[in-house]
Amino acid sequence: MLNIGNEKVPLCDGVSRRSFLQLGTAGMAAMSLPTLFQLEANGSIKEKPAQIKNCITIFLVGSPGQHDTWDMKPDAPAEIRGKFKPIQTNVNGVRICEHFPLMAKMMDKVALIRSLHHKTGATHENGQRWMMTGHDFNADSIKPHVGSIVSRVFGSRGDLPANVILPGPIGNTGAGPLHGQTAGYLGSGHEPFFLNSDPARPEFKVADLEVPAGESATRLDARTRLLNQVDELQRRTETKSTQMHDASYERAFRLLTSSSAKRAFNLSEEKDTLRDRYGRNTFGQSCLMARRLVENGVRYVTVNHFDTVFGQSCWDMHADGGGLNNTYLDYERHLCPQFDWAFTALITDLEQRGLLKETVVAVLSEFGRTPQVNGRGGRDHYPAAWTNFLCGGNIRGGQVVGSTDKTGARPNDSPVEPPQIIASIYQGMGIDLDATTMPGPGDRPVRLVDAEPIRQLFA
Amino acid sequence: MRTMLLLAVIASPLLAADPWNVSPSSMEIRHQRHPHSLQIFGTSADGYSFELRSSTTFATADPKIATVDASGWVTPIANGSTQITITAQGQTKSVPVKVAMPVEESKTSFRHEVMPVLTKAGCNAGACHGYSLGKNGFKLSLRGQDPDPDYLAIARDAASRRVNRLFPNSSLLIAKGRGDAPHEGGIRFSKDSLADRILTSWVAQGTPEDLKDPAQVVRVRVVPETLTLQPDQKHRLQLIADYTDGTARDVTRLAIFAANNTQFANVDDEGFVKAGDSGETAIVARFERTFAATSVTVLKPVPGFKPSPVPTDHFIDKHVVEKLNRIRITPSPVTGDEEFLRRVHLDLIGVQPKPDEINAFVADKAANKREKLIDSLFERPEYVDHWSLKWGDLLQNSRNLVSAPSMYLFREHIRGAVAANTPIDEFARKLLTAKGGMTDDPASVFFAVSKDTNDTVERVTQVFCGVRMLCARCHPHPLENWTQADYFGIASFFSQVSSKQDGRYPSVGNAKIVSLNLAAGSATNPRSGKPQPPRFLGAEEPTLAPNQDRREAYAAWLTSSKNALFARGLVNRIWSYFSHRGIIDPVDDIRSTNPPINPALLDALTKDFVEHKFDVRHLMKRIVTSATYQRTCVPNDSNRLDEQNFSHSIPRRVPAEALLDSLIQATGVPENISGAPAGFRAAQLPDGTSENDFLRLFGKPQRMDACECERDNGSNMLQALNFLNGKSILSRVKNAAARPALLTRAKTTDERMVIDLYLWTIARSPNAKELKLGLDYLKEGAADRTAAVQDLMWALLNSKDFLLVH
Residue B433: its pLDDT value, please? Predict the structure, then answer.
């Protein structure tokens, strides 16, 4: 059982904010303070960082249709099977859409779940909340993002926050502000860290970590040294609250000044060929950034593929001729290729660095799309059946969980609901759901998610 | 052996002189399989608990009636009377034993033996088969709340594979528990353990069923109830269950023991306590659904400890110092004027004092100036803001839950009560019996906030009794003897209430009218499926006239001066607003298994509060006039590690609203808060819905929960990032209309400048070293004095003395 009720606060081992600050910004990079890695500035200070795996969740905002991607129905009538054709993959009997040719060559790493469905309304937000938190909720019970839960229960590791969302939060998707990408009742210490910046832009920088406009690094340094001296003279007592305060300032200083934290965000250190392989677009470069962050200690990275469904080309293929005018052409010309390149680059890159076994990669979306192609050649929201997939971590690739009926309208067998996906992500990260709780609303200890992992994924 | 050595080391010179006790003083055994232990224990002259079972000789007068083993367990042999002679430390005592068993030994009991074993082995825990979906197809009721389905699940389901009456060892129940068969839950008990013997005999006897047995546990008692131990000292506990049929049974080996805080003590499966670091915790024992707790104090010997004189002029100080003397701690002295002034301002009115207030207070030579100041703070408008905010949080006044006009009207109702210092019992009765719409009675918004009757149950118990009932909605509370009958017993007081859209305000969304259907019946207990008669929390089921407003009965019971829950819960909660913790902590999780750190202090405060007719200002004044409240945060050698007993002040982070208001006051630069009228201070915000990054980051609650824990007063990296690199401080100090610019324009001396900056930011004058540091910085930066002044203010606002109440 993880101890969440009784806070354990080890003494600071003599490494204080003072000594930290005395080094000034110049000495930060070389500094290693292992004891402070353990100080979690959230009230729950653990004895040692937990050994769990990482997760990168790719969220396909808008949701691709199952018929046009990973659960094709080539034998169905034309108005159901759609325009695309299936191709063979490197796993016998598993076929996917012709517009994922790179992915088809690495299906042995991927576990497709074709029997996903949820029973709530067909809004984007319902699906986002299911897939970001593992829970259904409404305005009066805001559940925490999975990454925030991981941050709360396992703490952060190194200089970077435990939970990062790239490139920014999901914005307006039509039905309210609750997308499941907040810390909810877990508190501000576990809010996701949003990059809020486009890593594909040449002048890309992380705003929160930069010297503010009109400031010079010299003055920042002078101020910081002054703060150190002011604080030094105030030092009278060491208690839990002063330690938490010191620890959080130290973390912030690290992030502001440690070159390793900054380097994690610096894509220009990557070879041009690799950056090209991921795709020179916001999504591709975000996936590359996700790998860099995981490498540097971030436990949970979410990459939002698009921040809205309105007025741009995205997965929400209504073909309505207006603000939601995504069509087969969008899928074929850039959505599928963008995903195919970035996703396969990420998997290959992680594997080559020995990180794939240490990192669950989850590709999730809100729902499926209607079996029947609509009158304008699009498909609409359809939560009764869709396909998502997991790979990496403890998950066995090269398999398919569940299937749908002839028209891709209903799960045929092994129906799976979103909380089971979230439970499987936790399990894939090596988290024992039966031995782990978090403080729920009112501090009542609760399971991380009310579901069991899909056993087949780990068999 | 180890225990003996330890005892010899600790207290041997004194032991011989210390009389010991034996528990029980006499025993009656009515069952062949109910052996009973003898507990030999006492307190040494230097205040430590000791326990002598391992160094005691036990002898039975008649081994044909009862035998006794070397560890003091008495086993019945045949009916009759005998006595056990106990010799320890050269003294002898005897315990009469009566054995009165049925002629034939009864079969193994499912209710009284198998169920406790399943619980003790963890089979029915929430993470195992007690999980609502079961595990691997085998589901038990959570923590054994429901023996009937559990019996079926074990003895009948899965084609009876779980039990094999011919070959008990092949029963899955036993093979998996022992680890003989693969079991995801691991090995739960070893072969030939007590658990194994009970399960094996029960299966071998053909899984007899005694679900209708009327005998039930009334309570469990743990012996001893308090322990004072040295670090690493061991002590065993004895747990006795009293049954409805008058029998007492030693259940030490069948119970579950847990320490509330394992830093201070650990306990093993059989009730052996091992002390850890100096400090206090409770050991909780659970058997079936009843609980008992032993308070453990771990103390290092302090040679030459001189008790502090016990104050007689203030009862808070009296009780705190008495406790500190007992645990050999010397409190820190009372703090100086400036530290006191800032602390009492932040705690009573939610904002720092200004420079002229600090100067005037320091200059005042009157002996009673602290008391005078406290009286004046109660009259400040910020007092109303600060405490209305608190009550707004607790009562969840929010636009997310009710219409904006309702929210504002309810806010005015709360502000009126705070301004008039309405006695808290009257305030509670008004809320709990309100009806109509927001314009008929703004107090009715209390009910409009509730989603349903369950929400009301949880709010009224948590806010007004400090008790969390949520768990008992679906299953017996895991840490207290609350059941669904208790939960729905309270629901029945509120089941006449309904709220729906107020037809007079069709265009105001979520404007509700609270109405009563006097004919409505009781709430249904989902476990029994039957109506649950109204039942006061932890008390009787009153006889109520039909068609009366049952809320009135509840409100009268709740606020009665005889109801310990109400006054005690509120006193504890209000205490916590002036300290880093409650006397019981968390303040809204009061239960027998979470005992107060200083019961005498809590009782005295409660008595005083009731005697003064629930006058909140009186209570607050009692607290802030005490030396205990006014102590410095600088520890001494004896209290450095004490964070439980109020021996010195423990710094806390300034809450979100007070932090923002103090920052605005210090810099003179306001904050634009969307969703609030212009010029509102953060403390005046009507609810938690304002979109403000600062307040969200520093943990302002959204008012979605009646729990104090919704407010997040922790420190975290994102807050620090905001203060160090964000706009909150940087753009404020650089603002052309801000304090640094104003002070620079005033062309003061450098010394005046440094002093003013300290007074505006951390509300105290700099000491000599701090003054020199400031002067040096201004001198070095003389080329750009404005920038240097900004930097100094920036550093002070980022320093601990600004962020913490200390």
Answer: 97
- Non-local (6+) Cβ contacts of B344 within 8 A are B370, B373, B374, B377, B624
- Distance between B339 CA and the closest CA of chain A, angstroms: 13
B329-373 pLDDT tens trace: 999 999 999 999 999 999 999 999 999 999 999 999 999 999 999
Q: HEC profile for A151-184?
A: HHHHCCCCCCCCEEEECCCCCCCCCCCCCCCCCH
DSSP class of residue B342?
Answer: H
- Give the tens place of pLDDT for each residue, B270-320: 999 999 988 899 999 999 889 999 999 999 988 889 999 999 999 999 999
Taking CA atoms, what residue in B is nearest to A244? B715
Can you give the C-alpha Rg of chain B in angstroms?
31
CB-based contact B801 A41, cutoff 8 Å: no
Provide, rounded to the nearest whole percent, the portion of chain A with pLDDT above 90.
Answer: 59
Which residues pair with residue A113 across a beta bridge? A388, A401
Residue B174 token pair: 């036993």
Report whether pLDDT(B739) > 60: yes
Q: Is B136 on the interface with A (CB under 8 A)?
A: no
Looking at residue B275, its pLDDT comes to 96
Please report residues of A whose CB lies closer than 8 A to that of B806.
237
Residues, chain B, total? 806
Nearest to A219 by CA among B791, B792, B721, B720: B791
> Which residues on B lie below 8 Å from A185 (Cβ)?
704-705, 710
Cβ(A304)–Cβ(A169) under 8 Å? yes
Chain A CB contacts of B695 under 8 Å are none
Q: Nearest-CA neighbor of B237 among B227, B248, B249? A: B227
Scanning the structure block, which residue is given the tokens 């087949």? A456
B773 inside 8 A of chain A by CB: yes
Residue B184, CB half-sphere, CA atoms under 13 Å: how many? 12
Q: Which residues contact B280 (CB under 8 A, 6 or more apart)?
A: B264, B295, B296, B297, B298, B327, B597, B644, B645
Q: What are phi and psi of A3, to 5 degrees?
A: -85, 105
- Cα separation, B363 vs B360, in Å, equals 5
Indicate the pLDDT class of residue A138, thresholds 50, 70 and 90: low
ipTM value of the model? 0.80
Chain A within 8 Å of B62 (Cβ-Cβ)? no
Please give the share of chain B, as a percent, with pLDDT higher than 70. Answer: 98
The arithmetic mean of pLDDT across residues A344-370, rounded, is 97
Question: What is the pLDDT confidence band of residue B719, given thresholds at 50, 70 and 90?
Answer: confident
The first and second tokens of residue A112, run together, are: 């497709």
